[in-house]
Specification:
35% helix, two-stranded parallel sheet, 230 residues, globular
């Protein structure tokens, strides 16, 4: 869902076990521009394993009858008046997305800023919302330089997600990846799962459930805003 520049598709296609990637983005202009000029993703856009669709992700999931082993939400942030905040709601996860997951399937979604000062905007709410829908929910985060903040993601499934040692993770990645990853290895994965105490406590205490009526929104906290404030 989303990922119009092609980077998520590029990374998914690095897995030998992936038979097919269905990428659905609503913005044809962005997709066409990136296909033409973003050379780092050119090979992914040309892959025979990629099915590229220009459509609203919600509508696409409602119309499809096939099921997916993994659904990735690489959507725009939930901003007020924006096109995507409905795709972070309990009703969307429960009634539209979850039925499209295969048995043992996993949802992975970006979930907004996860810094000490920003994680309560939407991250804690999205995490708690997914806990109302799935049996097993795992939050994680990493620093994203272009956002000038830690960023959060959440994995969710109705089946337990296996835990491997750092060494076993490295072995499995070497076996299944077509090429070495620039960022992720066993040690890095372990680090992303280790949230700081402030964020962990907030996630544990969060009671807000994300709905269209009670939506929370992301607000800017980047370098540009800090400069303006100065």
């Amino acid at each position: 869902m989303g990922g119009g520049e092609g980077s998520t598709a590029r990374e998914a296609l690095k897995h030998r076990s992936v038979k097919k990637v269905v990428m659905c983005d609503i913005d044809k202009e962005v997709v066409d521009f990136c296909k033409a000029y973003l050379t780092s993703n050119r090979e992914a856009f040309r892959s025979s394993r990629l099915e590229l669709l220009i459509n609203d992700a919600r509508a696409e999931l409602e119309e499809r009858e096939d099921k997916f082993d993994v659904i990735i939400g690489d959507l725009a942030d939930p901003v007020e008046g924006g096109p995507c905040y409905q795709l972070y709601t309990q009703s969307f996860y429960e009634n539209i997305l979850k039925p499209r997951l295969a048995i043992g399937g996993i949802l992975v979604t970006q979930a907004g800023p996860a810094g000490i000062l920003t994680h309560k905007e939407v991250y804690s709410s999205i995490y708690n919302t997914l806990r109302q829908v799935f049996k097993y929910v795992i939050p994680y985060a990493a620093h994203v330089p272009s956002y000038s903040d830690s960023w959060g993601w959440v994995m969710a499934s109705d089946e337990p997600m296996p835990k491997f040692s750092i060494e076993e993770t490295d072995v499995r990645m070497k076996q299944r990846m077509i090429s070495e990853l620039r960022f992720l290895d066993g040690e890095t994965l372990s680090a992303t799962l280790a949230l700081n105490k402030v964020v962990r406590r907030s996630l544990a205490k969060e009671t807000h459930v994300y709905t269209e009526e009670t939506a929370r929104f992301v607000h800017g906290h980047g370098t540009a805003q800090k400069l303006l404030c100065q």
